[in-house]
Each structure stands twice: as structure tokens, then as C-alpha cells.
Amino acid sequence: MKCSSVRDIQATGLGNTNLESSILPAVDVVAMEAQEKRAEEYYLNYKSMIGVGVTEDAQEIFDSLSKTMPCAWSGQLIVCYRVKISPPYRSEDCAGPDENEVNRVRKVLEGERSKLDKKKISPSID
User: Residue 16: CA atoms inside 13 Å, Cβ hemisphere, count?
Assistant: First the structure.
């Protein structure tokens, strides 16, 4: 039945539930506070994963890198381990105190950039 064909609604009597005798379930305040804390932590973590003032490509690179290694934004720098990647976020833009970490990040970055470039060249049809 279409809602547009309804012309009138009338109550024919009271339902079976007596509201005065119904008992509402108890609310577990401790559980609600724990859920609120988890939601706030999730939001703060999610918020820290969004770059401010960065390009869409930069955010895509960050998202890709963060799937395999710990990453954070520091202004417009992507920080993976102790390696800082500056714009335009190529392997030669990586710098850090530990050459092994730098090489690891460079290798992953090159692979992720390659995947993103292929995706841009031949986008999938949904």
C-alpha cells in the first residue's frame, strides 16, 4: 500500500501494554561510560589519521602506508617509525636516523605509489 493513498488514520482503542505497570530495563551506567570512552578514543585515533592541508594523493599515500606500518601526521610530514616523508611523498623525500628504517619505508612507499599510480591510470568500473 502506498502512503500517498492513505487518507485517514484512527485509533480504535488502547493497546495491550499498560505503561504504568511496564518496567523499563535497567541502564548499566558503567557499561555506557566504557562505551563512550571507547568511542572517544576511536574518534581521536581516526582524527589523527586525517592530514590537515594535504592533497588527496598525500592522504591516499598515508592511508596505504598506515596499513602496513605505524604512521602519523606531523604537519604535512608523514612519519613512519622515525622516518619523515616530506611532500611530494616520493622515496627520495624520506629521511631518518636509521638507514634500515629509511630503506624499509622507501621500499613500501615505492610499492604503494606504484599501486596508486596504476589505479589512477586504469580506474576500476563499479
Answer: 0
